[in-house]
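Folding Problem: From Residues to Backbone Shape
Fields: amino acid sequence; protein backbone structure tokens
RECORD BEGINS BELOW THIS LINE
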Amino acid sequence: MEIKFVLNGKPTVADVAADTVLLDLLRKLGCYSVKCGCETTNCGLCTVWIDGRSRLSCSVLAAGIEGKEITTLEGLQREAEEFGAFLAAEGAEQCGFCSPGFIMNVLAMFRELENPTVEEIKEYLAGNLCRCTGYMGQLRAIQKYMNRDRKEVQA
């Protein structure tokens, strides 16, 4: 079946089978930041935004995105680079495998929450697994990123 949607700001048309999951479609379309880590909605590696809300693309049928706006990390390069600088400053670099899904959720959290507590940050990111770090450097980077002047982001 043919579906039409917006992918990273660009109108897109794709032919998909009824059982195609969004994760597979996005990778086929060149969005390699979207990764498969578990296929059970437990790792967060496949996080994308559907109409601005974080979703796990391994749990969404591609046919269900008809008319929707899909955003992957490829569509958020400026924001991702900005947050990446916060990670690097805290020594929270990772191998990179889980980073795209993690960054997608941090950017979504920035849009949804203002001045979240440490517990709120942990709860928001509970579904993002990383096997490289102890999370403390990431947490420091997130807190600094979330608490920076929001006016500079809107400029």
